[in-house]
From TrEMBL, chains A, B:
This is Transcriptional regulator. Keywords: DNA-binding, Pyridoxal phosphate, Transcription, Transcription regulation. In the C-terminal section; belongs to the class-I pyridoxal-phosphate-dependent aminotransferase family. The lineage of its organism: Bacteria, Pseudomonadati, Bacteroidota, Sphingobacteriia, Sphingobacteriales. It holds the Pfam family Aminotran_1_2. Coiled coil: none annotated. GO terms for molecular function: DNA binding; DNA-binding transcription factor activity; pyridoxal phosphate binding. The keyword Transferase does not apply. PROSITE patterns: HTH_GNTR (PS50949).
Length: 470, 470
């Protein structure tokens, strides 16, 4: 798969030490020469390590003295606490709040901290255009014909090959393509759930999932979720007899950005398999890791075919293409039938184009760049939040994905903040969107997928000032 | 909209007289000179009338004598009788037969009389490729961004403009785009039905609709249907208190090809509105009329917003593009919400390309050509069926669409015929696919969307011989 450069590997290790507080603000870093010895690398590699850390604003060069951990690191905002939803299944309609927030999609006059997709300026637009052109030429009848029911073979093959990167071992025949990620989740829930069934999810949770579950006549059970390690397994164990389906975003979920450790993933998969409760795993952010290592998926611990692994290119390449897929394990026949009956086929041209983009390695090169940009953005966002947001602000420290989750003091009302911010042309996602219960009133989600700029920094300052006034 | 040439209008009138038996085999037609006088047209127009009728194999020129109605017209197969399903709601799974038949999609080694789409060779492939290229250039961020929730504005505007052609008066804001026609029907049924509800449909009925209704936990009530005029309104009146939704393909439905007269449409719309039963109108074949006049839609008689009018380009332009739409009347908010929750958006690039193809008039020019081709194909198919199929064969006489429905003598078992034909690389759609009841065992559907050729004729001869042997 993708080549990981040695300098990048070393830089990530040092960055982790800085973030974890092992190296502290003002600490001197080893010299270039010492680095060469310590890691057995050449001068050029060692120099690139420092350039990389500098680009991430983690270190600063001082003339004649070498590199030091940046001063700005001195403040380190605390993490939000583990969420504590009540363990009761809800089936009432989600508030209209998220519909209001999402209606801002495409509004060029707003700064859209609310929309969880990478900005177009971070995407390989020219290459994608060419890929579409090639696809119209390569496909029989220019792509006007129906695809095979399971979906574009090239795309499925490449998704299968890439599964090795997260500990999976998929075959193209294990996969079914869908019209984007939401469509994959929709088919999974339709295949597995019957009205009145209960679906366990993370809390806070992506509003689209809340709406989807409720729309199908299913109930939502929100699980306590740790901002770093994901759902609390003890809580899941307690409710396992009351639930019918579990739907998680184990890797860099939105809004928390938590990533379940491998041991947790394994335990959850085994726990659910023992009760024959299917796990729908939404891995749509899995490729957006900031470190050097792609996190594993729950699917990689699945020996029973009980995990339905879903993903898409909507968060990494092209939201508007509607290209997603699912590896539905033992539920494959059910999913295939649903696709036949409710969709018939995917859009041949676009799925071929994405399949080819993956095949030629362009996707990996793009992801490499996108991950770096998002990691830098993340650092800038955290710096701005640290500098401008009111005392008592807590924030998540995701190691990947597109979002950070801010918890203000209890005085800050996120919905009011949303309304005040909209008057200043700033759109944020207020906490109550992410739950069916009365919670997260003082929380917001910020999307880090916008290209960093002084204007963005200024907007975050404005947002911080609004929060301070509350 | 589209220009209808005078010669074409006159030819259609004469063709109708031939088909209706007013002009009979061997009858002499008026001379070119007489035609000029009668219709007040020039010589060139009159000559083109005869060329057109000749192209349709309806008339033959005899040297020095003029034009005569073709001899082959002498035999005229009778129509199948009105269908007589029992008026009981069914909710069992459709047979696996249609899954088997549809699994042949894309198999180049078969003659696919079974698949109801126009062959790629009848589609404007080069122009469509260009249109896609333009779309990637015209759209912001190359179409990687999400569309507005309701769908591509250009496409909705053009579908609205074209609604004038069928007596409608839609505005772009009345329309929501979908990923193809099936997706539109799926959203409508999801929005309107709850498990256990009963949906009245035509019988025989498109298998995809049977599967869709059953898949959502709804029941199917099959209505007696006339091969020319569609559902029997008296039957609908009898069951109206037992049904919750009505789903019809009033224009050139598959497999019968029936087209409800305007008066019937109006009556059905009023009958259903009086009982507050929504009508889902699938108009996917409406543009494929053989005559000069596009048939009206039920939606054009809808004063209450009770008709959900659905269509797509899957039967006319590009099955693999997945471009459809719905005008859901008073159910618009429900439909919009379903689209948000289950699909989020359509594929921006392809929907823009189709929108533009409609806008530039290319779609109308293509349809004009496609209709002529299908009309000629229809004539060839009927001729071959008349010539090669066993005594006692009955056939529909659709005035548009993509299918003819054949009723054999009771001795012919359509499923066995399907299996025998497959051994000779011929795929047909056997009657039992089109119902949940025990009927149509001696019926098949033939799709006329393949380009006519001697080979096709030979395949129909083979098929006829197989049926004769039974």
């Amino acid at each position: 798969m993708e080549k990981v450069y040695r300098y990048n590997e070393i830089a990530s290790g040092i960055a982790a030490q800085i973030r974890d507080g092992i190296l502290r603000s003002g600490d001197k870093l080893p010299s270039v020469r010492m680095l060469c010895k310590e890691y057995a690398v050449g001068m050029n590699t060692a120099k690139r390590v420092f350039l990389e850390l500098e680009a991430q604003s983690l270190v600063e060069a001082k003339p004649q003295s070498g590199f030091f951990v940046s001063n700005r690191r001195v403040e380190r905002l605390p993490l939000p606490a583990v969420s504590k939803p009540s363990l009761i299944a809800n089936h009432h309609e989600p508030s209209e709040l998220s519909t209001r927030v999402y209606s801002s999609i495409g509004r060029g006059d707003l700064t859209l901290f609310s929309i969880g997709v990478p900005s177009g300026s971070l995407l390989p637009l020219a290459k994608l255009k060419k890929e579409i052109l090639y696809a119209t030429r390569a496909l029989k009848e220019g792509g006007t014909e129906y695809e095979p029911l399971q979906g574009n073979v090239k795309l499925r093959r490449m998704v299968a090959v890439r599964s090795l990167g997260w500990g999976g071992n998929l075959h193209e025949d294990d996969l079914i393509t869908t019209a984007g990620g939401v469509n994959a989740l929709s088919f999974c829930l339709m295949a597995l759930g019957k009205p009145g069934d209960t679906v366990a999810i993370e809390s806070p949770c992506y509003p689209g999932i809340l709406q989807l579950v409720i729309s199908l006549g299913l109930k939502v059970l929100e699980l306590p979720t740790h901002p770093v390690t994901g759902i609390e397994i003890d809580a899941l164990r307690k409710v396992v007899s009351k639930i019918d389906i579990c739907l998680l975003i184990p890797n860099f979920n939105t809004p928390l950005g938590s990533c379940m450790p491998d041991a947790h993933k394994k335990e959850v998969v085994q726990l659910l398999a023992a009760s024959n409760i299917p796990l729908i795993e939404d891995d749509i952010y899995g490729d957006l890791y900031f470190g050097t290592q792609r996190p594993r998926c729950c699917k990689s611990f699945d020996t029973e075919g009980n995990v339905l692994w879903c993903s898409a290119v909507s968060k990494t390449l092209a939201p508007g293409y509607r290209v997603g897929w699912v590896a539905p394990g033992k539920y494959k026949e059910k999913l295939l039938k649903l696709k036949l009956v409710h969709a018939l086929a995917s859009t041949s041209v676009i799925h071929e184009a994405v399949g080819n983009f993956l095949k030629t390695g362009r996707y990996d090169r793009h992801l490499h760049q996108l991950r770096r940009t998002l990691q830098h953005n993340y650092q800038h966002f955290i710096d701005a939040v640290t500098e401008y947001f009111p005392e008592g602000t807590k924030t998540t420290r995701p190691q990947g994905g597109l979002a950070i989750w801010i918890e203000f003091n209890k005085e800050v009302d996120a919905v009011k903040l949303y309304e005040l911010a909209m008057k200043q042309k700033i759109s944020i996602a207020p906490g109550p969107m992410f739950t069916l219960q009365d919670q997260y009133q003082n929380c917001i989600r910020l999307c880090i997928g916008l290209p960093w700029s002084d204007e963005l920094k200024f907007k975050l300052k404005q947002l911080g000032n609004l929060a301070k006034m509350m």
